[in-house]
Write a structure and sequence with these properties.
With 331 residues, the chain is an alpha+beta fold. The chain contains seven helices and 20 strands. It folds into two domains: 103 residues, FAD/NAD(P)-binding domain (3-Layer(bba) Sandwich); 153 residues, D-Amino Acid Oxidase, Chain A, domain 2, CATH 3.30.9.10. Bound molecules: flavin-adenine dinucleotide.
Length: 331
């Protein structure tokens, strides 16, 4: 980080705000920042000891506008604008890197899905195109050539550090007047005349006419406090990190072929040289149990080596979330 944190530790006894946000993750922290920037008095409450300690710190950092839904494409194009300009605007290094995304096809099924989506994506202004096999190999020379048909390439997408990002959103929000209370768990939201009025935690009571539910995996539980049932069902994904190696890969590679045990599989090389990889488990691992599973590494290793045989000897340093060192070879 280029600049130091706030010099004066804030002591705030204030209990009444315009808005209370529950959750200081990658949704709550930028929301607080932009509300504070707009002059709205804002309190963020989180049960953890600091920002980004929920799902946000487990994310592998991919930031893409390559989606199939117009609202997501537009929102994420705006996100990319913010992430890519952050260092220039505020001076903090959040490890933003514009490596692009490539969704690859080895079968006609995936080629058709991706090409059909391209029409939608391009119609919403996304900078994305189709690369045939040889063009794709110029961008990603280490992809397994056997059966490769081609893939999409969206050079504007990228990645950034989830923890650094939530931290700078938090710090910038503090500078603009947002208040944060950590180590406080919201247990009740009371209403008056059909409107939210108070947020009760294990350490205090705060008032606001507007409460934003940014509680991530806890969102359903928070919504129930005002009698709403929002269909947020958390499911766990696992990720792994290899040893650092010399740069060889620019874009995030996404393989949407379903195989037994997983749906999407995606990986990229971080600026520090490590390959960071992740799968979407199928069937989903529903719930909030974030311990790593014994099946993850053998499963993902096969997918990684199959796509990039060159990686067969790379060592995996750790997998989420326990941070256990594995030092296991992939192939
Ligand atoms: C392995 C992995 C890889 C991922 N990769 C990517 C990726 O490449 N790109 C991407 O965009 N996304 C990725 N994600 C998803 C991403 O991490 C989440 O979508 C995102 O972090 C959700 O942010 P959030 O702010 O909604 O939730 P969280 O970060 O979980 O924040 C919610 C906060 O609410 C707090 N909270 C909940 N209930 C209460 C309560 N009652 N009282 C007080 N506080 C409460 C929690 O303590 C928590 O800090 C990945 C996720 C995983 C697990």
């Amino acid at each position: 980080m280029s600049s130091a944190g706030p010099k004066v530790k804030k002591v705030h006894n204030r209990t009444t705000y315009d808005v209370i946000i529950i959750g200081a993750g990658s949704v709550g922290t930028p929301t607080a920042l932009y509300l504070a920037e707009a002059g709205v008095s804002t309190l963020v409450i989180d049960r953890c000891a600091s920002v980004g300690q929920g799902a946000s710190k487990a994310a592998i950092g991919g930031i893409r506008a390559t989606h199939s839904d117009a609202a997501k494409i537009r929102t994420c194009l705006k996100s990319i604008e913010i992430f890519s300009q952050w260092e220039e605007r505020y001076g903090d290094d959040i490890e933003w890197s514009r490596g692009g995304y490539s969704f690859i096809a080895y079968r006609e099924r995936e080629e058709k899905i991706l090409k059909d989506l391209l029409v939608v994506q391009q119609s919403y202004g996304l900078d994305i195109g189709w690369l045939d096999r040889d063009e794709l190999l110029e961008v990603v020379p280490d992809l397994n050539r056997d059966g490769l048909i081609g893939g999409t390439y969206s050079p504007g997408d990228g990645s950034a550090s989830p923890l650094l990002s939530t931290y700078v959103f938090y710090r910038q929000g503090l500078k603009l007047g947002a208040d944060y209370r950590f180590n406080e768990s919201v247990s009740e939201i009371t209403r008056e005349n059909g409107r939210v009025r108070r947020v009760v935690t294990d350490r205090g009571t705060y008032e606001a006419p507007v409460v934003i539910n940014a509680a991530g995996a806890g969102a359903r539980e928070v919504a129930r406090m005002v009698g709403l049932d929002v269909p947020v069902v958390p499911d766990s994904h696992e990720a792994g990190v290899t040893e650092p190696v010399a740069p060889f890969l620019k874009p995030m590679i996404v393989d949407i072929r379903p195989v037994e045990g997983s749906a999407n599989y995606y990986f990229y090389q971080h600026a520090t040289g490590q390959v960071i990889f992740c799968v979407t488990p199928d069937p989903p691992i529903v719930g909030t149990d974030r311990r790593e599973t014994s099946g993850f590494l053998p499963h993902i290793s096969r997918r990684l080596v199959d796509l990039m045989p060159r990686l067969r000897s790379i060592k995996v340093r750790r997998s989420h979330d326990t941070g256990r060192l594995t030092h296991r070879r992939l192939g």
